[in-house]
Amino acid sequence: MDKLKEILKLIKKGTYEIIPEEELINKLRENRPLRVKLGIDATGPDIHLGSAVVLRKLRQFQELGHKAILIVGNFTAKIGDPSGRSKTRPQLTNEQIKKNMENYRPQIFKILLEKHVEFKHNSEWLSKLTPENIIKIASNYTVAQMLKRDDFSKRYSNNIPIAIHELLYALFQAYDSVATEADIELGGTDQKWNLLLGRELQREFRQPPQVTITMPLLEGIDGVKKMSSSYNNYVGITESSKQMFGKLMSIPDTSIINYFKLTTNLPVQEIKSIEKDLKDSRANPMDIKLRLAREVVSMYHSSQEALKTQEEFLQVFSKRKFPKEIPEYKPRARKIWIIKLLVDSGLVSTRSEARRLIGQGGVKINEVRVKDVNLELKLTKDLILKVGKRKFLKIKT
Length: 397
Fold this sequence. Notes:
Blueprint: H1 2-12, E1 17-19, H2 21-29, E2 35-40, H3 49-63, E3 67-72, H4 94-108, E4 117-121, H5 123-126, H6 131-138, H7 143-147, H8 150-157, H9 164-180, E5 184-188, H10 192-204, E6 211-215, H11 241-249, H12 256-263, H13 268-279, H14 285-300, H15 303-318, E7 328-329, E8 335-337, H16 338-344, H17 351-359, E9 363-365, E10 368-369, E11 376-378, E12 383-387, E13 391-395
Parallel strand pairs: 2-3, 2-5, 3-4, 5-6, 7-13
Antiparallel strand pairs: 1-6, 8-11, 9-10, 9-12, 12-13
Helix pairs in contact: 9-10, 11-14, 11-15, 12-14, 14-15
């Protein structure tokens, strides 16, 4: 019994809700490898710290001896998950899905144990459903039940269109649980409705209903919206140590504790101690963010790389020095318009982006802010061009 309590304590760490907890305990008592399902719709090319929250929980189940059933949503991705959306989500093409999944697989195994993963593509069963099958599945649910879902309810009351295929998405995702005979399904809190639908559909197919475990959503580095490649507020787990470190240092102070809880392996009591220090103003938020960045970079790179990156970060941003290694660029002419220099050197993509950055004060030459978009540079000596907080370029004469 003590061992079961310890296992349950580990599973509950960081989770938002277990539905129902009693059924999870009963399944754990069966002393067999449970089939723990996680669905992935290949909507972007990168796995980020937000999506890693659920993957890391799945890794815990693997370490406890259970099987990770990873559902590649190559069929449902072509529909587009409406969860948490205020409008219809764009549908992906087969080419986009294939390209994204080519990038996904090596990233997934930075977190999961490869030998305990069973990959399934839901096109294996969903593409074979006949109209008769689909009607039979859909007949178990009413439109009124569907519209109880929060995002659909809001869109309906605001006269924002809801397409029929979006209603079918939830049913198809639920059928994945039937097809794989899942014991447990993991997902973010925004997936709760879909996951519970899987329980109901399993009952209709006379299967033991899966236990639903939801994980909190991690906010992006903007501290506002959930972390998502769609919102470009994410930290990718395959990004360079410098990119990861810099992005994590940019999060608002209000996000620090949540990031410790959802992206690190620190014990609960240690995180509570950090939280107490922050509230009592006994610690500098900058120092605590440095620790957060070290912890995360160590997980996806190494502790040595984390320390090296911290030293570089402090050298550049705290001591206001330039990096030791800066890429170089030599313009063809000795006189050049600042906008053209920014675009030609590859620091920005377009002239409009260059104008915007200068207008926002985000461009410096030798640490002097550029204010004039019409500036003509006369290159008589080497200089350092800085864009934003992390881009440096040595302009050679």
